[in-house]
């Protein structure tokens, strides 16, 4: 099958859905070109099929493929922010990292190494799939590239600042505690958004606060609304290099059933997308979308949500790199 692509502004875009049905052919994210099909990519999408760090339902290793499959309907113009992200910047799918499913330490090292390699040419990295363990090596790479600690916006039902599980330090419930310990986060500007649900004890919150985290709970989003929250986050973070980590379980299980540790009372996909759009112009240096576990998904509900979150993140980064970067 000959690929017929949309080309705009000298950028190779998605396969043209008016000429080749969008359900045909092998899936890349948004039917964008593979990395080897472009000369240079400004933004690279990469999958991390890894879920050895999970504490409950497994399956996020299949998340990368599922997000790609659920992204076939994405169109090239994003009216919510008036941006054609694939025409402003060259965006390409870098495929999946090959990571060891039997050795977490080795996997973490490989992810860091791969992320550094993919960003060596100055490209921005957006990661799809995997469990939340992978945020640690991705943050290590991001802070190395930024030349120091980075700010963090962490969208999640969970704090993920717990200490250990079964004595294990590197799990999907612990990446941000490790990141604080390693000094790769700018603790003046780190915040969870969307947290809720039962904890092990009050100490979880005390520890989290001691590490420097601000918290915008799921209830805060409900009572305060998107605008007020966006303003607060922008104030707190300013122009610092900012990494955004989105655990899809930040969404209510009604909006994202396909995930490993679901919690009732979450935000809607509209709220999440609106908060992200409010971050326009901020100095985003990398992002991940994790914890998509397709075995528990129905009708691609979770996959579609994750693929649209990815699209809005790409829109922000593309705008930042080549657009007006305006709020
Ligand atoms: N979904 C993420 N990242 N973390 C959940 C950890 C839940 C727990 O077992 O306590
Ligand atoms: Zn979570
Ligand atoms: Zn998480």
From TrEMBL:
Residues noted as binding Mn(2+) in the record, renumbered to the chain: 132, 156, 158, 160, 247, 249
Matches recorded under SUPFAM superfamilies: Arginase/deacetylase
An individual GO BP term: putrescine biosynthetic process from arginine, via agmatine
Pfam families with a match to the protein in the record: Arginase
InterPro entries named among the record's database cross-references: Agmatinase-rel (IPR005925), Ureohydrolase (IPR006035), Ureohydrolase_dom_sf (IPR023696), Ureohydrolase_Mn_BS (IPR020855)
GO terms of molecular function: agmatinase activity; metal ion binding
Source organism of the structure: Glutamicibacter creatinolyticus
Source species, domain of life: Bacteria
Cofactor(s) listed in the protein's UniProt record: Mn(2+)
Family: Belongs to the arginase family. Agmatinase subfamily.
Cofactor binding comment, as recorded: Binds 2 manganese ions per subunit.
Swiss-Prot/TrEMBL keywords: Hydrolase, Manganese, Metal-binding
The protein's name: Guanidinobutyrase
Manganese listed as a keyword: yes
């Amino acid at each position: 099958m000959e690929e017929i692509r949309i080309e705009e502004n000298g950028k190779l875009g998605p396969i043209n859905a008016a000429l080749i049905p969008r359900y045909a052919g092998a899936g890349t994210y948004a039917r964008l070109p593979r990395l080897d099909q472009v000369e240079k990519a400004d933004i690279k999408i990469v999958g991390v099929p890894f879920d050895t760090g999970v504490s409950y339902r497994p399956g996020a290793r299949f998340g990368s493929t599922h997000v790609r499959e659920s992204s076939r309907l994405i169109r090239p113009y994003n009216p919510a922010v008036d941006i054609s992200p694939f025409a402003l910047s060259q965006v390409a799918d870098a495929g999946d990292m090959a990571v060891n499913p039997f050795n977490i330490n080795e996997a973490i090292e490989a992810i860091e190494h791969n992320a550094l390699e993919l960003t060596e040419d100055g490209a921005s990295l957006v990661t799809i799939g995997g469990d939340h363990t992978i945020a640690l090596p991705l943050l290590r790479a991001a802070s190395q590239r930024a030349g120091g600690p980075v700010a963090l916006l962490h969208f999640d039902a969970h704090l993920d600042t717990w200490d250990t599980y079964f004595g294990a330090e590197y799990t999907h419930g612990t990446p941000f505690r490790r990141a604080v310990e390693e000094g790769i986060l700018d603790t003046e500007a780190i915040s969870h958004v969307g947290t809720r649900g039962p904890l092990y004890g009050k100490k979880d919150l005390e520890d989290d606060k001691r590490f420097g985290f601000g918290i915008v709970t799921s209830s805060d989003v409900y009572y305060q609304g998107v605008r007020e929250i966006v303003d607060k986050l922008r104030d707190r973070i300013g122009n610092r290099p900012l990494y955004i980590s989105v655990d899809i379980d930040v969404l209510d299980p009604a909006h994202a059933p396909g995930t490993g540790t679901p919690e009732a009372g979450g935000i809607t996909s509209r709220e999440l997308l609106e908060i992200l759009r409010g971050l326009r112009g901020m100095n985003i240096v990398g992002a991940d979308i994790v914890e998509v576990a397709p075995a528990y998904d129905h009708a691609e509900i979770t996959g579609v949500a994750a693929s649209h979150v990815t699209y809005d993140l790409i829109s922000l980064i593309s705008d930042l790199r080549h657009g007006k970067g305006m709020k």
